[in-house]
Amino acid sequence: MSLARISKTTQLCMSLSGRPGNFGTRFQNHLYDALGLDYLYKAFTTTDLAAAIGGIRALGIRGCAISMPFKEACIPMLDGLDPSAAAIGSVNTIVNEGGRLTGYNTDYIAIQRLIERNAIPPETPLLLRGSGGMGKAVASAFRDAGFTAGTLIARNEAAGRALAAACGFGWAPEPGDLQAPLIVNVTPLGMAGGAEAASLAFPEATVAAADIVFDVVANPVETPLIRHAAGLGKRTINGGEVVVLQGLEQFVLYTGVRPDDALVAEAAAVALA
């Protein structure tokens, strides 16, 4: 957006994340500018979630993307949940309608579309690592797509067992020597900026035995897991694909406008560069 276009009527949208990245800021602002919309998007982090959510309401901020580790913690601070978030107990998007904050989950929608786009047969056994807010969205999307032969891997036994039971999957605390044709990472392992940025989310033997390797981490898009899998010639699905699809749905919720595919691809290329 040109600075000359920012005014008192400009609608502000934002994100809250433990480790802010640049994707959302570049993606959303590129679309606003291309479509001539009076919006501006900025990424933030916080150590006071309640105050941040209160600020969204008090300042009339139109929308807010929510990332780890706030996807579940923000729920008691909202006024309502869309079915996409209520069904899985996880929020990744807040929309402000005149001071009423409603939570949505566009991660779930993105995962469903990626399952369809990649034509992954529902009878494919999978290993899914992670039981947090994003883990709930991913596990639920696979469940609702008809996947039944799955093992959910989570160090937190209570959360892991609960999510596994809700999805009809087994549970394990660590990958160990488990193997499956489809492996999915929904943990911060491999995420830039963390102590485990260089870590593989699954053992090398597990990656070698897989046919499809899916990592939802988008910062960086080429995580250690994706790089290793690609080096072995595996079919990969990366977090960049997830953030584009979920970011598009957030854009539509904030603005009421759905850009065409060519413009979305252009914005994604800019954001992921």
Main attributes?
single chain; 273 residues; alpha/beta; Rossmann fold; 2 domains; six-stranded mixed β-sheet; six-stranded parallel β-sheet; 38% helix
| Overall geometry | globular
Number of helices: 10
Residues in helices, as a percent range:
25-40%
Q: Structural class of the helix and strand makeup?
A: alpha/beta
**Mean pLDDT figure:** 96
- Name of the CATH homologous superfamily of the largest domain: Leucine Dehydrogenase, chain A, domain 1
How would you explain this protein's 3D organization?
The strands form two sheets. A six-stranded mixed β-sheet has the order 2-1-3-5-6-4, with helices on both faces. A six-stranded parallel β-sheet has the order 9-8-7-10-11-12, sandwiched between helices. The protein has ten helices and twelve strands. By secondary structure, it is of the alpha/beta class. The mean pLDDT is 96. The protein folds into two domains: 134 residues, Leucine Dehydrogenase, chain A, domain 1 (Rossmann fold), CATH 3.40.50; 130 residues, NAD(P)-binding Rossmann-like Domain (Rossmann fold). It is globular and about 60 Å long.
